[in-house]
Amino acid sequence: MKYLIFFCVLFALWQVDAKHLVVGNVSNRVQLANHTTITYNAIPFMKRVKYFFYSQLDNRKIQGIQALDNYYSQSSINITAGGVGYPFVNLRMKSERGRGMSYDIGIYVSEDYTHL
């Protein structure tokens, strides 16, 4: 019985392994500059690869990036250009084979203009 409980807990932890991306400061003395929810449907037997581009209009540097996987899937997200310390960011998202993907993306900048 102990082994059955152990394997059930282990299987549950394995199932909720999501690929979130949190880079930089997203909680202290920053403001949310952009919030976007990106959702793509599944294509059977295929992986979806999509890109997200964001550019800060007033050239304030990005302080933090937060991308949360809404489906808690094995999809991946990574930064291909820019990011923290730059006024732009390019994100690449890749879904699991045969599954859709959904991300909540938040871009955070400093509260004032003194950090240029």
Q: How would you sum up this structure, described in words?
A:
With 116 residues, the protein is mainly beta. The chain contains one helix and seven strands. A four-stranded antiparallel beta sheet has the order 1-4-7-2, with no helix packed on it. It has a three-stranded antiparallel beta sheet with strand order 3-6-5, with no helix packed on it. A hairpin with a 5-residue loop joins strand 5 (76-82) and strand 6 (88-94). The chain is elongated. The termini are far apart. Residues 6-16 have low confidence and may be disordered.
- With strands numbered from the N-terminus, the spatial order across the biggest sheet is 1-4-7-2
Low-confidence runs (pLDDT<50, min 5 residues)? 6-16
**Rough outline:** elongated
Beta content:
over 45%
Ordered list of secondary-structure elements with their pairings:
Blueprint: H1 2-15, E1 21-24, E2 30-40, E3 49-55, E4 62-69, E5 76-82, E6 88-94, E7 101-110
Antiparallel strand pairs: 1-4, 2-7, 3-6, 4-7, 5-6
Could you name the key traits of this structure?
116 residues; mainly beta; three-stranded antiparallel β-sheet; single chain; elongated; 1 helix
